[in-house]
Amino acid sequence: MKWIGQHIYDQISRFRNDVYLEDISTGTIVSGGHLGLDSNNKIVKAVDGGGDITGVTAGTGLSGGGTDGAVTLNVDASQTQITAVGTIGTGVWQGTTIKTAYIGDDQVTEDKLANTLLAEIDANTAKATNVSTNLSQTTGSDTLRIESSDGNNVIIAQASGSIAGLMTVTHHDKLDAIEASATADQTKSDIDGLAITTVGTIDTGVWNGTAIATDQQKHLENFEFEGFSVGDGTNYMIPEINTDTKAPFEHQTSTGSDGLTATTVIRLLRTSGHVMPYAGTLKLWRGWATSSGTGQTVDIGLYKFTLVNNNNTDVSPVVLKNTSFTSVGNTKALTFAETSFGVAFAAGDILISAIRNGTNNKKCEFTSTLVVEWD
Question: What is the CA radius of gyration of the chain?
Fold first, then answer.
């Protein structure tokens, strides 16, 4: 069925040439439509890919744009305010140096390092000194111990005749005592010029020098002490005064149970004691003694009296030494020898002996020699 003009055709119509429409009313084209009229009312088809955008205009900091086809926008190189740009897939970075803080942790691998830097790292890793350690020390008189916090400890021993090593305290003291300018081959004139006044103890050798002055020598002297006493079994007895016919051997004047009773000055002067000309020390007291009876304890003592010039005050004795023995009868002598003395004496001191019998009316007799050394 065909209609002409305002007629409806049930069949498909094809036009070989352009189709123009006249008196066409305006209206809204359905979204997505592709047919339209050009300025001559010719029916035309829109270009594929077109849409509602009619043009792209470049804004601030951009250039380019367009109304159709592929549109390109270019960023002005002078712009400094652009901060989020997304993933940059290609290109060459020509901006400022990237700061370390903007490099991710553990993101730099060996593959990214220069070969020369890798070689330096490998060489340093091969060294034993690249391991950090703390050192401490423990000192001694003849060794030094160096201790490592994470390695082996080392002990430095003292030097010997065959190996080098540590200077010990002994070595130091020996060297420190040597004169700064001293040498191992000093001549006799060098030594003589030193005017040595102290040489310490000379163990061996023969003295061939000038005579030793008396005040530079140690002098020994002997004093005899002897006597007898009947005794009262309790007190020490010192010698009788010189007017007694048995003086000075008879010891029968009491000075108390400890021998320390004070005695008058005139009494002491009449006992014939030994006056010490110099100060000194006791070196040896050796003698023999006997006592009647058996089993009694007998004491023989040495005392000193120190007088005061122009003074009549009674003087108390001081014990120098006391020796004791147990009697075995008056026909048998017993020996004694004392070498340890805790008290010295001064010049002018008077030394006397005293006897104490352990039993009343028992006789004791002794003879002895006292060796003293003058200071």
Answer: 66
